[in-house]
């Protein structure tokens, strides 16, 4: 291994340590008080080292969030393209909800980066990265719903309108799973996920009378 390759590996390893340290702090109750200095202390490095990897705390948070969404999109590859659209939707939605359930440590940073004030203060470069991710999920969802319409499995309605309901239901389900309770009571995660996915499917299949 050459000197340059060793330096690149060391740089990548250090960046992962920084991200892990930030994620650990963000999973604590006092996460709003997290600073670059606290992240540096957690990673046992100097504050200046963090700025060699990330120009700001928001850039670091964005990296964590984009990594989370990248893993989510990769999980969709498990769903066979040969399945009927309704079954593909069931598998995809279930995978997505379980992915959120299995990665609770990302809850606060993902919610933080989805806030309007974060997007308003983000650099053009960061915004472009988030837009690319949004476009990727939009294309995936649009193609799946359109396939369901073409197969006669989903109602023939404007896809954009159908997505409103899916987004609202999905976002509410994620918050419920991450909070761990619904209407003040603990939930059975498996039953909750199954019921939520079937509810979304019922909306996609519904035909106005």
UniProtKB/TrEMBL annotation:
InterPro entries reported for this sequence: Homeodomain-like_sf, HTH-type_TetR-like_transc_reg, HTH_TetR, Tet_transcr_reg_TetR-rel_C_sf
PROSITE patterns the UniProt entry points to = HTH_TETR_2
MF-aspect GO terms: DNA-binding transcription factor activity; transcription cis-regulatory region binding
Q: Domain (HTH tetR-type): give its ranges.
A: 12-72
Keyword terms, alphabetized: DNA-binding, Transcription, Transcription regulation
In which residue ranges does the UniProt entry place its DNA-binding region annotation? Answer: 35-54
The protein here is known as: HTH tetR-type domain-containing protein
């Amino acid at each position: 291994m050459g000197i340059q390759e060793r330096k690149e590996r060391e740089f990548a390893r250090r960046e992962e340590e920084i991200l892990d340290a930030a994620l650990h702090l963000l999973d604590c109750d006092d996460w709003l008080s997290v600073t670059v200095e606290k992240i540096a202390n957690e990673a046992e490095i100097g504050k200046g080292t963090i700025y060699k990897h990330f120009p700001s705390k928001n850039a670091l948070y964005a990296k964590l969030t984009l990594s989370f969404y990248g893993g989510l999109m990769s999980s969709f590859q498990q769903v066979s393209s040969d399945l009927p659209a309704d079954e593909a939707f069931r598998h995809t939605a279930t995978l997505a909800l379980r992915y959120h359930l299995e990665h609770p440590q990302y809850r606060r940073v993902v919610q933080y980066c989805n806030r309007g004030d974060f997007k308003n203060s983000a650099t053009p470069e960061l915004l472009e990265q988030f837009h690319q991710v949004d476009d990727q999920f939009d294309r995936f969802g649009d193609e799946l719903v359109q396939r369901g319409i073409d197969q006669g499995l989903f109602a023939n309605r404007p896809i954009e309108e159908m997505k409103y309901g899916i987004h609202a239901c999905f976002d509410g389900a994620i918050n419920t799973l991450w909070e761990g309770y619904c209407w003040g009571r603990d939930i059975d995660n498996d039953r909750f996920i199954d019921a939520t996915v079937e509810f979304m499917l019922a909306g996609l299949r519904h035909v106005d009378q």
